[in-house]
């Protein structure tokens, strides 16, 4: 009888310990900061959304004991964006919602008014805190004009025709900011450089990108800055149909991405990419959130100073440009970071 009682006590103790352990695990999971990165599109653009998704990955890898971050893809069907975003707000599952771009601004303003306790990191568009004050919102604005100045300078430097082009997804303030910096940089190197501004009217259709870029190449443009997410991938296709023409990628290091994917011909045409390091922006913001130093209710401006925008260098870059030319690029980069070169902006 005593032996049976001892066995029962041991079993109860094991069950109790197991239950306590499970409870502790549940409490740890509940204490984690849960973050949802909401994409009004899909991953796989080798650009903007992929960079943000990489930032989510970094959060989980570095702060997995404190953070649980996930990516929600809304696809390119804009008729569903509002309902999907509202579902994320309504669920109360996420402590922080990351959402951005010009297309999502209006609906996010409305939803933050309906759900004033929901923390939001809005990115890639300026939040008007005077008109829409929000104590639980921050805005992450990347100084794409600064990075675009650098690649514009490089475009004019690489151009043999003195005719380059900016090929944007759709005309909005952020894209116009890209174009402003690009044109200023190109003319800083060559005041006589002709800079066209063209639009694909899409961020997802590579056929449109190919058509618009093809028209530019046929008119003597020999460097195109492809700035339109998934649609911009068509610019690389167009470049392969012409001799001695190049592409400048955007947001991610697209030259390195093509190389990694075995697309060596496209990699050889990509002389640089204007990296908008969304990944670093998200990660650093997460660090501040964990440390308790993130101040809400304001726009954060992230530029060359801090490495949030930069010009990528690949083997193609060092093939197309001389060491002296790349040293000049480093010099203007340092001057922008120091505030010695003031870059035009659409904001």
What does this structure look like?
The protein has helices at residues 2-31, 48-63, 81-91, 102-114, 144-158, 173-189, 206-218, 233-239, 254-260, 264-269, 278-291, 315-320, 323-338; strands spanning 33-39, 67-73, 96-100, 119-123, 137-142, 163-168, 194-199, 223-227, 246-250, 270-276, 298-302, 309-311. It is α/β, with parallel strands linked by helices and 347 residues long. The strands form two sheets. It has a six-stranded parallel sheet, sandwiched between helices. A six-stranded mixed sheet has the order 7-6-8-9-10-12, with helices on both faces. It is globular and about 55 Å long.
Q: What is the CATH-assigned architecture of the largest domain?
A: 3-Layer(aba) Sandwich
Specify the number of helices: 13
Mass-distribution shape = globular
Structural class call reads alpha/beta
Total DSSP E strands:
12
Secondary structure elements and their pairing?
Elements: H1 2-31, E1 33-39, H2 48-63, E2 67-73, H3 81-91, E3 96-100, H4 102-114, E4 119-123, E5 137-142, H5 144-158, E6 163-168, H6 173-189, E7 194-199, H7 206-218, E8 223-227, H8 233-239, E9 246-250, H9 254-260, H10 264-269, E10 270-276, H11 278-291, E11 298-302, E12 309-311, H12 315-320, H13 323-338
Parallel strand pairs: 1-2, 1-3, 3-4, 4-5, 5-11, 6-7, 6-8, 8-9, 9-10
Antiparallel strand pairs: 10-12
């Amino acid at each position: 009888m005593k032996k049976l009682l001892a066995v029962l006590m041991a079993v109860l103790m094991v069950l109790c310990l197991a239950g306590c352990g499970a409870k502790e695990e549940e409490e740890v999971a509940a204490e984690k900061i849960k973050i949802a990165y909401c994409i009004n599109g899909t991953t796989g653009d080798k650009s903007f959304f992929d960079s943000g998704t990489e930032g989510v990955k970094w959060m989980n890898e570095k702060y997995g004991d404190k953070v649980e971050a996930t990516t929600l893809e809304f696809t390119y069907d804009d008729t569903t964006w509002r309902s999907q975003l509202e579902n994320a707000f309504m669920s109360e599952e996420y402590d922080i919602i990351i959402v951005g771009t010009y297309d999502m601004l209006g609906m996010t303003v409305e939803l933050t008014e309906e759900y004033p306790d929901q923390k939001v990191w809005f990115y890639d568009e300026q939040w008007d805190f005077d008109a829409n004050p929000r104590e639980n919102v921050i805005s992450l604005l990347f100084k794409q004009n600064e990075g675009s100045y650098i690649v514009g300078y490089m475009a004019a430097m690489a151009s043999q025709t003195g005719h380059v082009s900016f090929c944007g997804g759709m005309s909005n303030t952020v894209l116009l900011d890209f174009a402003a910096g690009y044109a200023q940089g190109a003319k800083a190197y060559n005041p006589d450089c002709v800079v066209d501004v063209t639009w694909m009217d899409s961020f997802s259709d590579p056929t449109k990108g190919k058509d618009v870029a093809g028209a530019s190449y046929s008119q003597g443009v020999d460097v195109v800055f492809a700035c339109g997410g998934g649609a911009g991938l068509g610019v690389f296709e167009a470049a392969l149909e012409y001799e001695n023409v190049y592409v400048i990628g955007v947001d991610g290091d697209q030259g390195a991405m093509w190389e990694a994917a075995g697309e060596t011909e496209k990699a050889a045409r990509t002389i640089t990419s204007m990296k908008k390091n969304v990944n670093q922006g998200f990660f650093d913001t997460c660090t501040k959130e964990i440390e308790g130093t993130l101040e809400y209710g304001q726009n954060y401006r992230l530029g060359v100073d801090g490495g949030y925008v930069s010009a990528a260098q690949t083997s193609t870059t060092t093939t197309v440009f001389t060491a002296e030319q790349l040293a000049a690029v480093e010099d203007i980069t340092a001057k922008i970071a120091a505030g010695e070169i003031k870059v035009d902006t659409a904001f």
